[in-house]
Amino acid sequence: MDLNNLTIEAARSAVQDRTTTAVALAEEHYARIQKEDGQIGAFLTLSKERALEQADRMDFMAAEGKPLPPLGGVPVGIKDVMSTRGVRTTAGSKILDKYVPPCDCTAVTRMEAAGAVVLGKMNCDEFAMGSSNENSAFRPVRNPRDLNRVPGGSSGGSAAAVAADMAVVTLGSDTGGSVRQPASFCGVVGLMPTYGRVSRYGLIAFASSLDHIGPLAKTVKDAAIVLRTIAGRDPMDSTSADVPVPDYVAELDKPVRGLKLGVAKEYFGEGLDDEVRHAVEGAIDKFNSLGCEIVPVSLPHTPYAVPTYYLIATAEASSNLARYDGVRYSHRARGAKTLSDMYRRSRDQGFGAEVKRRIMLGTYALSAGYYDAYYLKAQKVRTLLTRDFDEAFRKVDAIVTPTSPTAAFRLGEKSNDPLAMYLADIYTVTASLAGIPGISVPCGETREKLPIGLQILGKHFGEATILRVAHAYEQAA
Amino acid sequence: MRDSTRSRITLKVTEQDVAYVADLANLELTAEERTGMLGDLNSILDYVDRLNELDTSDVPPMAQVSDRYGVDESKQCSERFAYASRDDIPEGLRKSLPHEVALENAPDSDGTFFLVPKVIER
């Protein structure tokens, strides 16, 4: 069947009514991966045996006339920071290049319980640290829309696979923009749910107070279907919230007329590309014509978000990554004479440059004498950033911004300047720090035919509203 | 917005600091990596210094987003996070990994223990 623009419902219906089989659909995706992925690099590992077994189960159900679950037979990809039992999981790092997890990530378990067929594991920046996917220890991912450009990061493989129709949907993880920014660069939909909405059990930790799992999809409706599948309390993650999961799909078609949408000038300042500004302003006009009320809001601490994020995220990462010591499951250097020597040499060999840089920055920010000045200071500013949103959401239902200040940049363009790379996250780190949900939805193209993303931010647990707003825009655009 | 501590925080990372922090982080780093790190850390820390433009003396730190939902404000300490707790199960929430599964990814083991180089020099 035609994989271009194939959605969850179209794929599931075709398997249900026997127009095709789940096995054939998986094989067609593998054929496409075989043909396209050599130049794109979205997949790190294929899990063909597991995929075909699951597809077979779905075909058996369909043949018996049983109703398939919501993702029955739908081919999906999983970012390689999510554990998959028996399938190699690297986090894009050499230090885990032979690691085969003994358990599944809860989000993956829930996807498979809903009938999804896991095609394989998606390439990403090492330990999800990066904004261009150039930090993958295996190979960079290229943007399917222009192979000389980056797909964004860190969920670059997840975004590129959906954009190139090598998977119907994928799961990514978002710590500072890692789902939304690649979605924007590749012209797909990417959702970061509220912190705690989706269990992090089995997700290889980068920064525990900031890590979120979320879908990348071709349509807003598909993102809603996946969120409905993976959301909800999980006893294996004590930070997963015990908050009821609404039917996000049923809420999509509610009218947006009368909704108040905030526009913050802090997201339209210096550094914003003119074409991106123009596209986002066009989207705001579109919302106006759909009957939404556009309300100016102020988020005054926005300029402090990137430094705050890079202190907190690196501090947490330096602690989380201490576990890679070459003893239980990660790479071990050969020939070390003492335990301490083994730790150091294993970590030196296993970690890439950006990961070392962040471990060093985070360790420094937590070290005696600097803790108050850096880490504690950043935690206080995090409170201020969150209060900005609390204040704004007293007046509006959602806030619209650009997802990224520019469209996809060229490979190598920022890779030698860490600070320039960090500033690519300027519009996404705010929501990560506040723990509010955000979605990126395609909003036109530049003259060079590169996708532009519109970001819609919501209140804590306000996914239904931002999905509805994004859906209304997608239908009207 | 002024911050009286600003003057004390305009430090720069030195080569000795890089060596000290690498040691804390269990990294060795090559001479070349150390030089690169010195430049990168200084430029990043210069940039984050802008946080000192903000007076945060009366602002509480925020460690967790989940502090902000689900908490029962009328309770104290961990009771406030009752939603995240569960009843004690003597044998644990689930069975531990079988021994051989837990050792499967080990770089070196004797089937019972993880093996590592000598811990104490004699």
What are the defining features of this structure?
heterodimer; A: 477 residues; alpha/beta; Amidase signature (AS) enzymes; 11-stranded mixed sheet; 16 helices; 11 strands; globular; B: 122 residues; mainly alpha; Histone, subunit A; disordered N terminus
Give the number of DSSP strands of chain A: 11
End-to-end distance of chain B: 58 Å
Spatially, the strands of the biggest sheet of chain A line up as 1-3-2-4-6-5-10-11-9-7-8
Largest sheet of chain A: 11 strands, mixed
Describe the structure.
The complex is a heterodimer of chains A (477) and B (122). Chain A has helices at 8-16, 22-40, 48-63, 106-113, 156-163, 180-186, 220-230, 248-251, 274-289, 305-320, 339-350, 353-366, 371-392, 418-422, 429-434, 463-476; strands at 43-46, 75-79, 117-122, 169-174, 189-192, 212-217, 260-264, 293-297, 398-402, 438-445, 451-458. Chain A is of the alpha/beta class and 477 residues long. Chain A has a domain at 8-251: Amidase signature (AS) enzymes (Alpha-Beta Complex), CATH 3.90.1300.10. The longest helix of chain A has 22 residues, at 371-392. Chain A starts with 7 loop residues before the first helix and ends with a helix. In chain A, 64% of the residues are buried. The model of chain A has no long low-confidence stretch (mean pLDDT 97). Chain B is mostly helical. Chain B has a single domain, classed as Orthogonal Bundle (Histone, subunit A). Chain B is 27% helix and 0% strand. The N and C termini of chain B lie far apart (58 Å). At the A-B interface, helix 10, helix 11, helix 12, helix 13 and helix 14 of A face helix 1 and helix 2 of B.
